[in-house]
Amino acid sequence: MLEILKIALLEWLIVTVMFGFVNVAAMGEGEAVIFIEPESIVGTDYKPSTNITFYVNVANVTDLLSLAFNITYAYDILSFQEFNLEYYKNLGNLKVGQGPGYLWFNLSYNTAIITDVPLTLVNVTLIVQDRGETLIDLHGTSLLNSDGTPILHTAVDGYFSNFNPYDINQDGIVDIWDIAIVAMAFGSYPGHERWNPDADVNDDGYVDIIDMTLVAQHFGEY
Ligand SMILES: [Ca+2]
Ligand SMILES: [Ca+2]
C-alpha cells in the first residue's frame, strides 16, 4: 500500500516536472516582449532643444488586457514633451504620470490584444536638454491577461547618446585628453600611419591646426 502511494507520488512529481519543462520550452520561442523602438538613438545632430521620439511596442502576446510600465532617463539630458496613443482600439482606461526623467503608464483595454508582430501602443517625444548618454530604461513592467494573471515577458530598454563631437574620447567632457588625441594625429591624413578620423573634427581629411583650434574653442564643454 505504502509502495503504491510512493509510486503514485513519484509519478505525480514526474508529470509535474515534465509539464514544467514543457511550459518553459514553449515559452522560449515567441516569448511576450515589451520594448522600446528604436533600440538606440545616437547622433551628434541631436542638439539641445531638438526632439527625439520613440515607440513602446508589444509583441508575442495572445491575451493582453492591461499593462503598466515605467520609463526613466537622465533628466539633465532629456525632458518630457508629449506622448500619443498609437493603439487606442477598445481602450478601457488610461493613466499616465510624469516627473523629471520619469514617465509611467497604466493602460487597460476592453478586448484583449493578440499579436505576434510588434504593435505600437504609445509614442513618446522628449526634448534634448544637454549632451551625453542615457538609458531609456523600461522597467517595472506588468502585463496582465484577461484573468488578471501576469504574463511572463521580457522588457527591452532604449538608449540615447548625442556626445559632443569635440569630446573625441567620449568621456563626457572636452578637455586636455581630447587635445592630446588631435596632437597625436596632427599632420595626418587618410592612409597616414597616425591617421585618426576622430581627430579630424571638421571632416576635411586633414588633422591640422583647424581641428586643434575647434577642440580648444570647445574646451570645458560637456
Ligand atoms: Ca573627452
Ligand atoms: Ca580637419
What is the H/E order? HEEEEEEEEEEEHH
| CATH architectural type of the largest domain | Sandwich
Query: Segments where pLDDT lies below 50 for 5+ residues?
Result: 12-28
Structural class: alpha+beta
Largest sheet: 6 strands, mixed
Shape: elongated
Task: Compute the separation of the termini in Å.
Answer: 78 Å
Which strand-content bin applies to the residues?
35-45%
DSSP helix count?
3
What gyration radius follows from the Cα positions, in whole Å? 26 Å
Kindly state the percentage of residues in helix.
10-25%
Which small-molecule species are bound to the chains here? calcium ion
Here the CATH topology of the largest domain equals Immunoglobulin-like
Number of beta strands: 11
Give the count of structural domains.
3
Q: What's the CATH class label of the largest domain? A: Mainly Beta
Mean model confidence by pLDDT: 89
The neighbouring-strand order within the major sheet is 2-11-9-4-7-6
